[in-house]
Every structure is written in C-alpha cells, then in structure tokens.
Amino acid sequence: MEISSHQSHLLQQLNEQRRQDVFCDCSILVEGKVFKAHRNVLFASSGYFKMLLSQSSKETSQPATATFQAFSPDTFTVILDFVYSGKLSLTGQNVIEVMSAASFLQMTDVISVCKTFIKSSLDISEKEKDRYFSLSDKDTSSNGVERPPFYGSGWQEESASPRAHLSPDHGKLWNKYSYPAAPQRNTQPPLASEQRKDAIKKTKHLRLSQPPQAVHLKSAQGEARPSDSSNHAAQSEEQAQTDAEIDSAPAGCQYGQGSDVTCRSFPDDLPRLRFRCPYCTHVVKRKADLKRHLRCHTGERPYPCQACGKRFSRLDHLSSHFRTIHQACKLICRKCKRHVTDLTGQVVQEGTRRYRLCNECLAEVGIDSLPVDLEAEQHSMSPADGDKDSRWHLSEEENRSYVEIVEDGSSDLVIKQVEDSEEEEEKEIKPNIR
DNA sequence: CTGGGGAGGGGGCCC
DNA sequence: CGGGCCCCCTCCCCA
Fold first, then answer.
1. Over residues A360-388, mean pLDDT
2. For strand B, which nucleotides have at least one atom less than 7 Å from a protein CB?
3. What value does the mean pLDDT take over residues A155-164?
4. So what's the pLDDT on residue A279?
5. Domain BTB spans what residues (predicted)?
6. Spatial distance from the CA of A192 to the C1' of B13 (Å)
7. Helical axes A95-105 vs A47-59, angle rounded to 10°
8. pTM of the full predicted structure?
C-alpha cells in the first residue's frame, strides 16, 4: 500500500528543517550569502553536488561547504527552493541565470523546465505579436499571461508537462541575450566563429520575426562543456518538431485545418513560413530545411571528407569541397588564372589537394610529370556518404592507401595527366557522393 | 593596411 | 523528404 502524500510530506519536513537550520550538515556560500542545506538532499538533486559530496565525504567528516561565484544568491535561492519543494519559481528575469546555474549544477530537470519556459515564452510572444497585428484573435483568454510562474517538476509533478507563463517583463529580457549555450553536460557549444556568424545572421532573421527573442545563456563560470552533438541534435530536432507541431506560426501566419498555412493580412509581404528554430528566431518553410538549419546550432557535421578528414554539415558542401579541393574540377590555372583544357594544362597534386596549372606555369615552376596511380587514389579519396558515426567506409586496404596519401606530405608536387572529359568527371564524383 | 580571391557555410528553392 | 544547385556572406590568406 502506498501513501501518495508521503513524498511531499517528507519534502515539506526537510524544507522545514532547512529553514530552521535543523540537521543541516552542509553550507553553500554564494557571493557571500550562506545557505544551509542537507547533504543527502543536495546529493540526490544535483550531479555537481553528488560529485562534490562524494569526494568530500571520503576526505573528511567535517561539515561540507561549497562556494559559488558563478550565479547570484537569488538564483541559488530559486534552485534550492526547487530542490526542497519541487517548485521552480521562474520569471523572464531569472530564467536564463537559473538555467545557467542548473547547467553548472547538473540538474537536468531544472534545465529542461527552463528550456520549456523559454520555448513557451517564445510561442506566447509570437501569439502576442500575432494578436497585436491581427486584432482579431478569438482565443485571447487561453493565452493568459497572469498565471503564476511556478513549475512543478521532479517529485511533485513529474507527469505534468509544464507550459510557460510569461511575465510582463519578458520582452525586455530577450533583447539582452543572443544565443543559448548547450544547457546540459555533454552538449557542444557551437564554434565561436559560428556564434559570431549566427549573431550576424540573426539580424537578418529579425526582419521576419521581431521583437528579438533569442536567448543567450551565460556559461556558468565560463566553463565550456564537452558535448555530444548527436544527442543535442536529436534533442533539437525533437524540440523543433514539437515547435512546429504545437505552435510555430510566425508573425502574421496561422495554421489552417491541415498543414496548410494561411497568412493573415500583414504589413509586409512575408513568405509563408512555418517551422521555427527553437534556438534562434529563424523560421523556414520546410521541416527538412529546419533540420538542416539546426546543424548550425548543434555543430553536427555528419559528412567527413575521406580525402582530408574535414567534416561538413551538409553533403552539398562536402561535394563542393571535394570537387574543388581534391578533384581539380575547375578548368582554371591556379597560377595565371587562365582557362586550361586537358591539352593546355595538367592536374597538380599537392598532398591530398589537386589543382590545375597550364603548361606554361608548369614549366615556370619547373615540375616534371610524375606517374600517379589515379584509380587507387580516386578510390581512397572520395567523400563519405552521410557518414553519421564518423567512420569512413573504407576497407583496411583502402584506409592504408588513404594514409599513404596523407603521409605523402603536402609539399610534394605530383603531376598527373589531365583526364577530365565530362564523362570522366561524372564518374569520379557521382559514385562516391551518391 | 588593404583589396582580391578562395574556401567554407547558411538560406532558398527546385527536382 | 533528401539531394543538389545557386546565391550570398564571412573569414582567411596572400600579394
């Protein structure tokens, strides 16, 4: 027989003990403010504390203390209250920092609730905006913005799928942030340059869906966490899909009965877009495009070049790379930029890289033709076909020949005869890339 | 320091 | 829905 109230009662008691500093065996110092808590509870709630306490318990029996500078006492209050009550007091003001702290403390429940909060906030913002522009919404009551910003999770409301409630101050907040850091352990922050590009591109996207709502998560203590991009990718896609399924109508657009989108009268002639990126304000028409777009957030690069090992997020980019870098498809002399044919020039191989030189430039450089086993190289230097698990589909023998090519060194110039009839090129590219 | 070109990367869209 | 093409932008290297 199970008494359903036992868990919550127990939690209440523990919370009471914490408030009265009874049996507290752990102190957490956050920017000078001391929080008392129970090791057992912290241990059970946070991966970070689990690690910390399991280490300190080996070393000493003294009361454990932890010090944090990465987040504010207010934020930790929210976290600690959640630990002891199962209720997360999220607002537009604190959600970013709470998520950041939760990420640091490895509290996946809290992270996912924060993500949902942010996501839902975006949904609601879209709806708000939609209503603002259309002035004809029929479901204003269902978008109640005054609901209390409490989230149940963990012990109390595990089954409930939390929806976000916007605080009135949301709009202000989003402007300050630009990108979500990977919230969980083993999630990979996109490359710095990508972030920069992303930020730039966002300004472009903002034309489509304003106000800016992208969310930036300050990395706790500046720690870059290693990542499992595939995990993240799957998560993102799932989230994106949910977005699209639940409510992803961009400004001015709403769903009809089926999957069709009906655009309302709108000041700008916006395209009919319907899939919104959960990480930025980008909106696309097709799910496949969103899937592709998500890779720029997840950093996923499923297409490795078998010739040089460089990885690409898209097959067409890999193909393009392979053609220009490893197949010398451009009929242009690299040196003098003149057009060359198989009669007026030759392909030069430099390591795994190939390009063309006209006969004049070849003579100038002073390189004689050297025999190259073209067939074998074509075999080993072909882009993988969507190699999801990052392994190259090569036999051992093929692998060896690849290694030989790479180890051949990039300084050696190898000349081979140009044999680039169109048919030949087709043959070289197509079978490998599919 | 600056401009040009190559390469990479992202979006739109056609097939 | 995936593949692939085109276009555009940014970064980096080099003259």
1. 52
2. 6-13
3. 32
4. 79
5. 24-92
6. 29
7. 40
8. 0.42
